[in-house]
Fold these 2 entries.
Entry 1:
Amino acid sequence: MASQKQERRLTFLATALPPIGWVVVFFLAPLAIVWAYSFGQNVSLTEVDISGTFANYARALQPLYLGIFLKSIFIAALTTLLCLIIGFPVALAIVFAEERWRPWLLLLVMLPFWTNLLIRTYALIAVLRTNGFANFTLEWLWDQGSWLMTLVGLEPLGEFTPMQLLYNNFAVVFGLVYVHLPFMVLPLYAALDRIDKSLMEASLDLGAGHLRTLFSIVVPLALPGIISGIIITFVPALGAYLTPDLLGGPDSQMIANVIERQFKRANDWPFGAALSFLLMYATFAVIALRAYLARGKSADGHGI
Amino acid sequence: MAKQRAPLEYNRRWQMRLWLFLVFFFLYAPLMALIAFSFNNSKRNIVWQGFTLDYYRKLFNNDSLMIAFANSLTIAFLATLISLVIGTLAAVLLWRYRFPGKTAVEGAFTLPLVVPEICMGVSMLLFFTRVLPWPNDLTWPFNLGSIVIAHVSFCFPFVALVVRARLASFNKEQEEAARDLGANDWQAFRDVLIPHIRPALIAGGLLAFTLSLDDFVITFFTAGPDTITFPVKVYSMLRFSVTPEVNAASTMLILITVVLMIIMMVMQNRAQKKAKE
């Protein structure tokens, strides 16, 4: 019947048009504008001429900006590595926890993840600042040490000088690890949970130590999850804005901070647009690399 | 005796327990301190001087902060509603139909999940200043429109993801049966498909709500001078000074998040129990 066919088509259009329309108008179009702007130049304060110039990209490759780019990649990589080292035992502990504890441990990992990023960063400021909790604790320890020294007849340690923990690169990495740790633990947990525990028992029964079992049984089997965790942590860490902005000093700016400055203070939108797209390309490269690795695996027949 | 434990009981080892304790201390101590010191009777945020609710009183009398709070909740509510509609349609579209260009559409729906926040914020800034300037003098809540649109753009893919996972377990014969019994497409959708995906709608909705409530970067670029959300307001307060008032405001938001999480957990448990029956 023609009317039924017509109804089918109407249903399809009613299903397809709203989401496709939305994503085109309110997501792809704005990105396309940024892309177009990256080939433009400032004509006056408010006008931009999209002339097809590559000058913005050339400027982005100057040592100053290239350096910030490389530094962002380094900081994100360091963050990811630290999250992996800290998070792996946590994921393992959740997998081996008793059934009734598992949801609660997962909740404990997820709760900070759901807490507002700004609030978590603010909480860290209170810990790390000159008269914050970390220095407060250190001072107390210092005083106790000093007291002990006099007790055994030595010179006291002298006045405590608070450590500069905030507004430097240390604070940025500390904050990024703090913020991104749940991103790492959850995929690691998902991967470790799927491993057949009898394989680990077999390895131990056959005489391998715990470390050897870990590195030759657990890690290879959990590799897809480990790679997911690395990507899921690295990508947002690379584009992090808030953490370096609030915890970093003048020398710990990351690429997102430079982009923000172009749009808000420096008012050089075409250059900011070019930097944004370089960051996007870097992100896509990482994701494509992962897809490529995953494809290679399944082609070998070892994929999961 | 230590020797008698099973080989895989890593959690019995003190090293593992110490590690877990340290990690959770690292994750929670700053937040706990933040919450505790919102009740501290002192301007200095470091030494405990006694319990007070003064900063909560100040918070509720701080009009601009309360407006920002109301704005954030309104935006999250509207963005969640729209994201649920768009996200569900996107999931159904990819699940039910085959059409030319499907891979591209699928890619476009997952793109917002991977594009860095800052790039999305910048694109929204350009879009709402150059293409679709949002009028400044609209009445509430229409003045929040640009932020709602921006939030929907990054929230709906999450809803689509959750709903699509749920659709995988749907038996298409149920829908055919409904049609055989005389239901049209809309009735079959409303009375058969929607009840099946309801748990996913709740989970996706809560996800979208928290994501929207959480967002700072994208809002920071989209918001005009008169449309302040809670995170943007806290950010400007932070730049200015660190006061216990900010602690109190943060505690309120943490409380909302925890309540939402608990609702989600309870719903999931109930759904699992139902599935077992």
Entry 2:
Amino acid sequence: MISSQNETARTPSRPQGTHICPICCIIPPHMSDHILKHGDEKMQTWMMETIRRSEQFQGRREVIGNFALALSPGEKRRTVYDARKRETLPGKLVRSEGGRKSRDVAVNEAYDGAGATYDLYHDVFERNSIDDQGLRMDSTIHYGVQYDNAFWNGNQMVYGDGDGRLFNRFTIAIDVIGHELTHGVVQYEAGLIYQGESGALNESFADVFGSLVKQRSLNQTVDQADWLIGAGLLAPGIQGVALRSLKEPGTAYDDPMLGKDPQPAHYSSRYRGSQDSGGVHINSGIPNHAFYLAAMEVGGFAWEKVGKVWYITLRDVLRSRASFSKAADATISVAGQLYGQSSHEQTAIRKAWQTVGVIE
Amino acid sequence: MKDEGKTMQITVERTGGFTGIPVTKIIDSKTLPQQEAARLHKMMTEADFFKLPTTISSSPQPDRFQYRITVEQEAKQHSVTVDETVVPANLKPLLNWLMAQPAQPATH
């Protein structure tokens, strides 16, 4: 059925889900590649969808990277889907790259937040999307009913609407979007195992780069930034300002329904229990605060120097089972390579890790 | 059907998630309207709850929830810890119903 370019160009875009695997499996790669390069936008979207479904079906995710590269290397490509309160992914396509603004604020927040995250990684760290190979950034909004969560599922971002009593919609805070996309970056780079200290580092990198996405989108220096994760996410009446604070871990909320922010700022107060994969969202406060202290000491825009050290560490140095002390040593070493041994930057980073009790 | 008349105490704890904030729900079937209690018993039967394994887990994924459901019914007690990504289809209605109940205030 896809026999020539002209025919395919005339084929109307299909609603998702009508063709799943029988077709995509028999389209030879050079042909789908051709459609991606020369088909109209609707056709390209359909082809990507087909490849995506086949890739999910076959469990081969490298396929999508190759096609993404074939389509538009070095370009930002975003799509937003609406799950319409169901839990089927990705949902109905509601906005793709360059598409018109939606009347639905969540669509635009997911789109703009993914864009700001792409821009930070691309413009500052010279990274081409989540996988550094131009992977399309897919987001699904309105996932589930009153769903109090956002997550990266290995392929895409997913956002719930919140229950309205404790939490608002999860796209409301741009750092949440940067956080989720960074889980994708971590997956492609250090691959930090989501348990114990390596898991808390995974969380911390997501918070740090989430905050940097916000700071850069607002053009804020370290003194102007709020250093909060999830400002605006807590529903009206909840006592708190956000979910986490890199500046003062443990102070983001204190509420009868939510309890008190449990994050420690010092290694000696770390959580040692088994909940939350060994406290990955709790102990992340320790490396979060180390980043904050180092960034404040260095000054200026946090993404320029200390942010760069953290990025290079994540990309080139850390291994999947890294501990806090490994991360501390790695950032100190990277700072030495980038800015010189005993440079102001390296000294600030070493001092920060000492202050939070990770190294002596 | 013979369990229909017996009351149940159910505790569900949700941990993990992007917020990292645990949520606990405690439900006593005695306090439910008759229709809701019947619905609960039906969902329990459909889930075959007392025969579910104590742990249903997947490799951990960032920011996903984990649930621990404990049911006490007369002399019987059973706890199931299940990761969000691998909730069995026949347990899903029960879990959704439980999570839609009012939350308990935080204990810490």
